[in-house]
Amino acid sequence: MAVEFCVLGPVEARIAGWPVDLGRARQRWVLAVLLVEANRWLSADQLLDRAWGDRVPASGRDTLYGYLSRLRRVLRATDEADIVRRSGGYELVVDEDAVDLHRFRRLVVEARAADDERAAELFAEATGLWRGEVCAGLDTPWAQAVRTELDRQRLAAELDHADLRLRTGRHTDLLVDLTSLAAAHPLDERVSGQFMLALYRSGRQVDALEHYRRLRTRLTGELGVDPGPDLRQLHQRILAADPALATPVPATGRLPAAVRQLPAAPRTFTGRAPELAELDRALTTGVPATGITADTCGPSGGTPGTAPVDGTTVVISAIGGAGGIGKTWLALTWAHRHVDRFPDGQLFVDLRGFSPDAAPLDPVVALRRFLDALGVEPARCPPDPDALAALYRSLVAGRRMLIVLDNAATAEQVVPLLPGSASCTVLVTSRHRLPALLARHGARPLPLGTLDDAESRALLAAALGADRVADDERATAELIALCGGFPLALALVAARLHLRLPLADAVAELRELRLHALDDADHPAASLPTVLSWSLRHLTDSQQRVFALLGVAPGPDIGLPAAADLTGLPPHRTHAALRALADASLIDPRPGGRHTMHDLVRAYATTLADDLPDAVRLPALRRVIDFYLHTAHTADRLLDAHRPQIRLAPAAPGVRPHPLGHYQEALTWLKTEYRHLLDAQQAAVAHGWHRVVWQLAWTLHTFHFRQGHHHDELSMWRTALDAAEHLRDPAALARVHRRLGLTHARLRRYDQARHHLDQALAVAERHHDTVEQACIHYTFAWAAIRRTTEPEAREHGLLHARRAWDLYRTLDLPVWEANALTMHGWFLAHTGDHDTAREHCRAGLALQRHHHCSAGEAECLRLLGWIDHLSGHHHRAVRHYREALALMHTLGHTYAAAITLDDLGNSHAALGHHDQARTTWLEAVESYTQQGDHDAARRVRQRLDDLKTPDGGPPPQSAEPTQ
């Protein structure tokens, strides 16, 4: 059955001509939002914001879902509209002609292209759809903005209709409408001009002149400006009773010619709501946009580059981003949605700043093309470029025009094409950020990034059909992930899928070939590598080499110190090169002086790096890996100054490790560069740099331990074992086996732990490495204490702890002597000898404090708390645990803090402080979960479920060493 929706007034719906009950007001307004955005995906948050504004109730999301469910039931009476749920959002699927708002827009567009008779009918039909205030009653900021925009579109249509009626001699009938319009818009010069002309042609010359006098008085008194040149000229002609003015221009069968150079809007454009809104804001407020899709909007009111005389500003929006990111699509989509705002025409030129087969277009050539479109015969064009630009500015002055300058290479290419009139709007798109245009002409950038997953899915659905995309959700999700939201990549894949290949086949090809799957030598514009290559043409050889080297740098992004070592350039020159690459939209600046690349851009850079000579590429990679290794070694020393250290080989020539001054600085650096350190090890493996491989694992041990990254630690040490075996270095081999044993023990893989520790001890004893033997015995004890319920493990652990203690004392390693002493006390506590255990821990605490080892101090305090808990001194246990936690939080020792929170909860529960126990255990669960220790998290959750005061139960299972 036919369905009709109305939003140009009270929100209503009719099915087969009969009104439909749309429910309460807010439910109607939810429908109004969907109708205004018909056939566009909206998230639940967007619907809430637009229908409720800042008054969303606590149950707003549930209320919204209820409204949508009821509206969906209402629409079931027709098969012509449906509310479809997609990816956490909703879309009203409907023929847009069924919605009065969209029908109004279609009628206006058709009227502007039709002959006079048909245009008059269409304009009348369009304006007749209005029944009052748009979305009446809805008062959210979104509704106000929509209402303002639609009122503006209605006025533009009414004025275009008035122009037609004036031209066709219907001025007498028009007077009533223009009288109302002039009263409603007293400062609108277009309305005033039409009203004055209708009055004059109706024989009311005096009234026309009086209206001009009142308008001029009001403009000068309220705004301090005179009427514009067009209205002043009309006034003079009325004053002189110009005979030509009294006779309507003979009908030509069409509206007055206007330049319409915009290419068609892209059919599959999706998303970009924030960027479109930003461009809308720039247009409605007259302030340059703060983003970048089309590159620039600058000041006007005079010669480009000079300050405007009257303070007005031509709106220039600069859209910037990488090749293939969708800059032109955004500019054209926005332009077509607002074409009614520019009734005097739209100019468009491709400046070919990054074209494969031609140099950037000379601005003089672009000016001549614009003048030709504006009706200037070639013979009238002056030869001087400045005079040519002046003629262009004169012709567009006072006109409501849109100028789209696409694919600009430089600001110098754009400046001559900027109008001098605030009535014009300019969109500039460029891969470069055009800083000179921003600084000298007031343009503010609109950076364009990748599409999110929902927008990517919508693009594929628009290109391939929603059913085909929905048929294979897994393939669609992987395809979107592999394209990384890059519009050109998605479009290229969609084009190939039009051959009806299964989505899974396209995914397999893209997964295997990645960038090569997006290459097409026969069609450069449909080849992502080729499109990206065009961005390099304006870069120096040095900048291109930096770009290529960034493709092989380990990690997801890079900071300036690492980049300087990678490139081998001084930091100031590296910074300049990075800035040039950012200006060319090849890399993206991030907070903290870091830079990142899209995965597909990085893949392209890697192909360029493969073409570099080995003498350039390999030393660059070695320098940046040595930068990470040597800086991480410094950081490790700051985290644990008492740890037995290894000696690194000298760094490669040109390496400048990042200076680190204190503990927190080291911890912050390791957190920031963590992913890079993992990737650096893999890069070292690929190039056979075996010593670097195991030493990177060594430098990250303390950080891994304290942050609870046990699975990453295991992976790194497994990789290190292969490297150590290649080196045939017994010291390295013993250390790697020991650390593998320790990591397996942490993960409760005791058989593997025992195997590696046996291997480590055999190597250390064979090569008489006493320090390593002590460390291995300590690690044996550490592994055994997690199995203290087994008498044999407890006995072996006690022996290993005693052996480690004895060895450390002979080696003059007091902090590790304290660790072993504390470990010995741990085993004694398990046997019930709490007093001796407490003495050992207090002695260990004194040593740790004397040698300023905060991590050891925290461990002793935690063990003292545990011994106090076992011996019934729960208040004292709580104090010790809290002291330990304070130190652990300062150290960033999240692994030990989780275990201590676990233990602290036991003492709170023993005291009957159930609220404190619950809070503490919840924090422990969160910390365990973040570290991936799901077994411990489950154990504590069970304790939360069974929370009660302990009554002589077993000792807490969380107690284990963390040092």
From TrEMBL:
Q: Which domain of life, per UniProt?
A: Bacteria
Which parts are the TPR repeats?
734-767
Matching entries from InterPro entries are given as:
AfsR-DnrI-RedD_regulator (IPR051677), BTAD (IPR005158), OmpR/PhoB-type_DNA-bd (IPR001867), P-loop_NTPase (IPR027417), Sig_transdc_resp-reg_C-effctor (IPR016032), TPR-like_helical_dom_sf (IPR011990), TPR_rpt (IPR019734), WH-like_DNA-bd_sf (IPR036388)
Taxonomic source organism = Saccharothrix xinjiangensis
Q: Which residues form the Bacterial transcriptional activator domain?
A: 99-239
Gene3D superfamilies under this entry?
Answer: P-loop containing nucleotide triphosphate hydrolases, Tetratricopeptide repeat domain, Winged helix-like DNA-binding domain superfamily/Winged helix DNA-binding domain
What name appears for this protein in its UniProt entry? BTAD domain-containing putative transcriptional regulator
Region of interest: Disordered: 928-963
Q: Which family does it belong to?
A: Belongs to the AfsR/DnrI/RedD regulatory family.
Spell out the Basic and acidic residues composition-biased ranges.
932-949
Which residue intervals are annotated with compositional bias (Pro residues) in the record? Answer: 952-963
Annotated SUPFAM superfamilies: C-terminal effector domain of the bipartite response regulators, P-loop containing nucleoside triphosphate hydrolases, TPR-like
> What Pfam families does its record include?
BTAD, Trans_reg_C
Domain called OmpR/PhoB-type: residue spans: 17-92
Keywords associated with the record? DNA-binding, TPR repeat, Transcription, Transcription regulation
- Entry-linked SMART domains: BTAD (SM01043), TPR (SM00028), Trans_reg_C (SM00862)
User: What parts of the sequence cross the membrane?
Assistant: none
